[in-house]
Design a protein that fits this description.
seven-stranded parallel beta sheet, alpha/beta, 12 helices, six-stranded mixed beta sheet, about 350 residues, globular
């Protein structure tokens, strides 16, 4: 089995080579991203393996099918970079639904603690032997209310972490988790209640038409003054311009972002020698109360192993049986369902 592997980073190769050799899979690792200009690199391969910033639109899908590529293997959970409705009936799309919820949830808490206790500032000061504490006053998490949007695997782990700090949790999910609401420290509420009652808001939901810019100007107006916003899920959940304006107006007290809605040409790459043309991101990074990491939350040894193992198992299972439990669309609905978005 031959797989064209796009958007390769050094940390991808060891685990994929390990599991690939075990199953007689040959990966061709390309550093370039998959898009309309690079899709012909997939010629002669049985499948392509892509990540979050590869472009899989209608044009790419058509060309992949012309080249005889049967499978699109996502080595991630999200699939908003794939035109799923167009893909239905043309190419099989497999994904990794979960790799390490602990990795993402723990990174979210790391960002929050760094922000509210000014650890990033203290680190820079101490490197210059400046041991002044002026301007480093933070606040306790104990007793604060955190609003968590999305209570899937990552959201649930983050809830557990927050409860360990003695925080009260207001949760929202389109499909509430069974037995998660205990009527006391964890309660499911409406989005309006969550926005109005939370000191901290953390996003752990997928990007859909319903969740696009779920944090926008109107929502920020509803929030408590000084609210802290965390996003380690999908960039476009947050209207970046509205967030910037909220920070400038002092309505948003701090923001911790591991994702950004226009990240595809920036994140995962070294742009230190270039002028950043994205003015909104540049302004956000310049703010003293904003921490930005470049889609790093997933990056643990355990997660990388799980991603590679699941991706390889997806491919092996599909090419052996024609079926895969982690397949999107084909297995979950009809073409009509797919067009209506019901199979997601």
């Amino acid at each position: 089995m031959k797989i064209a592997f796009f958007d390769t980073k050094p940390y991808d190769k060891p685990s994929f080579q390990k599991y690939g050799e075990e199953h007689n899979i040959k990966f061709k690792f390309y550093e370039t991203k998959l898009n309309e200009d690079t899709v012909d690199l997939a010629q002669g391969y049985d499948a392509v393996c892509v990540f979050v910033n590869d472009t899989v639109n209608a044009q790419v899908i058509d060309r992949l099918t012309e080249l005889g590529v049967k499978v699109l293997a996502l080595r991630c959970a999200g699939f908003n970079n794939v035109d799923m409705k167009y893909a239905f009936g043309k190419i099989h799309v497999l994904r990794v639904p979960a790799y390490s919820p602990y990795a993402v949830a723990e990174h979210t808490m790391a960002l929050l603690l760094a922000s509210i206790r000014r650890i990033h500032k203290a680190y820079i000061r101490s490197r210059d032997f400046n041991f002044s504490l002026a301007g480093l006053t933070g606040f306790d998490l104990h007793g604060k209310t955190v609003g968590i949007i999305g209570t899937g695997k990552i959201g649930k782990v983050f809830i557990d972490i927050c409860r360990g700090f003695g925080m009260k949790v207001l949760a929202f999910d389109k499909f509430p988790g069974k037995s998660l609401d205990n009527g006391d420290t964890v309660q499911y509420v409406s989005l309006d209640e969550l926005f109005k009652g939370s000191d901290i808001i953390s996003l752990h939901c997928p990007l859909t038409e319903d969740t696009y810019h779920i944090i926008d100007e109107a929502v920020i107006d509803k929030c408590k003054r000084g609210v802290v916003i965390l996003n380690t899920s999908r960039g476009a959940l947050v209207d970046a311009e509205a967030l910037l304006n909220g920070i400038k107006s002092r309505k948003v007290g701090a923001a911790c972002l591991d994702v950004y809605e226009e990240e595809s040409d920036l994140f995962f790459e070294d742009n230190s020698g270039h002028i950043l043309e994205d003015d909104i991101l540049a302004r956000l990074i310049s703010m003293p109360n904003v921490i930005v990491t470049s889609h790093q939350a997933f990056l643990t040894e355990e997660a990388l192993q799980n991603i590679a193992e699941t991706t390889v198992n997806n491919l092996v299972g599909f090419f052996k049986t024609g079926q895969c439990p982690n397949e999107l669309c084909y297995k979950k609905g009809t073409a009509e369902d797919c067009r209506d978005g019901k199979c997601f």
